Amino acid sequence: MRIGIVQASSTNSALSLTEQALASGAQLVLLPEKWVKTLDEVPLSEFQRLALKYTAYVIPGAFEDGVSVISPIIDDKGKIRGVAKKVHLFGSERERLFPGTSLTVFSYNGIKFGIAICYDVDFPETVRSLVKKGVEVLLVPSKIDKEGLPIWREYLKVRALENRIAVINSNALDLPNYPGHSVALLPYKKGNVVDTMTAGELGEEEGFMVVDVDPLSYFYLRASRLKEIVDVEVNEIQS
């Protein structure tokens, strides 16, 4: 599967870069969280047109719709197949929005995808819930600032490692505070241990990249990890 990651800061560049990624062979394209402020500013019909034109999926990012933070899923027929909602609201979002109460999984070209929006990735049980439903590739639209970027990368890497899945992140670009640096991480066997490799990374500028993600390359790593997961009870010793 060829996955495109777009870093854009305007509707014009978002559409242009998305089309460039699709024309370069991307079968699915992911954009960041809140690259525009609200869902009303997103040219959804244009993204739908591109998805239909190139017979590809487009995840145009994640946005506030006045109720929640949602991530529309546009399928290869140009239809909005569904939406994912942000479960863990961050900071001032909690003052004006409602959190999602469920997670979203979808299949495309035989691959099962899950969406975790920004702060959701900080919580391992959220991603683990997706993995238990068979997710092989995690799509993460985010808006992480320069100060938080180093620890954010640690979260992404740990989620990839502990679940043996690919993590595809598109991070917002709004300099100087939001530096982009979107990244694609893949698990792989390194001797006797499992590590992650960086399949691609963007810098601090508008742009796109297309990375190859083959879940079969880490199928046995993921299957083995799923067998090792144990749901345990916690017993408290009374004093």
From TrEMBL:
SUPFAM superfamilies: Carbon-nitrogen hydrolase. Coiled coil: none annotated. GO terms for molecular function: acyltransferase activity; hydrolase activity. Keywords: Acyltransferase, Hydrolase, Lipoprotein, Transferase. Residues 1-215 form the CN hydrolase domain. Pfam families: CN_hydrolase. InterPro entries: C-N_Hydrolase, C-N_Hydrolase_sf, UPF0012_CS. It comes from the Archaea. This is Carbon-nitrogen hydrolase family protein.
